[in-house]
Amino acid sequence: MASIYHGFSTDDHPQHQFCPPGPDSWCFYKRSIGEHLYPSGHKVRVHTPLNYNLLHQHLEPIYNWLTSIDLLRRCELKTTQNPNESFHHSVWSRCSKKNFHSLRRVQFALVSAAAEHNSGPAAISAIKKALGIQEGYHGHRLCQQRAKKRLYLSSQEQQKKAKKRKKMRAAAQEKARLEKEAEEGGPAYQAGMF
């Protein structure tokens, strides 16, 4: 919330209540106060001040949603980065970022990438069929190979995740066992102990 209110601040109405205090703050206003100096003008420091009356009602709900505990808990699992990167890769493999492309070409790349990302390679065949384009033998074979490869890579990734969860669970159980033994006064059994 600090960045939005920092952007709305003016000399007449400074709104730095959410900015971090102290001389090391990124906020020029709070940093000046932390250094016991008079803050300089907002026109110089806030280069593109936001119009509070026009934008506040639109931006604050977005900021509230982005900083909500529910969204942060969902992001805590870190499960969105690879799917997003995968989607972006499939878009840019259809329409290179290095070369200029028309809006229509970029839109086609987005639609076809989204269809394949959500429904697999068979989605492209379905789109061709809906448009009345007959798919040949090689196109059909390529579609099947891509679907098979996608399933294989997905199962490999799931196996890696399952192994990691199993290791974490075993480590947690071992830690709990060692803590319990320490509370009870040492191990109940140890090789060569008796």
What does this structure look like?
Residues 153-194 are annotated as: Disordered. The longest helix is centred in the C-terminal third of the chain and has 47 residues, at 137-183. Helix content is 66%, strand content 0%. It is flat, with a radius of gyration of 28 Å. It has two domains: 2-76, no CATH class; 85-175, no CATH class. It is built from nine helices and no strands. The protein has 194 residues and is an all-alpha fold. The protein has helices spanning 2-8, 28-34, 42-45, 52-66, 69-76, 81-94, 103-119, 122-130, 137-183.
Topology, please?
Blueprint lengths: L1 H7 L19 H7 L7 H4 L6 H15 L2 H8 L4 H14 L8 H17 L2 H9 L6 H47 L11
Helix pairs in contact: 6-7
Order of helices and strands: HHHHHHHHH
Shape: flat
Q: Strand pairing plus helix content: what structural class?
A: mainly alpha
> How does the major sheet shape up?
none
How many domain units?
2
Bin the strand percentage: under 5%
Mean model confidence by pLDDT: 81
Region (Disordered): 153-194
How would you concisely characterize the structure shown here?
Helix content is 66%, strand content 0%. It has helices at 2-8, 28-34, 42-45, 52-66, 69-76, 81-94, 103-119, 122-130, 137-183.
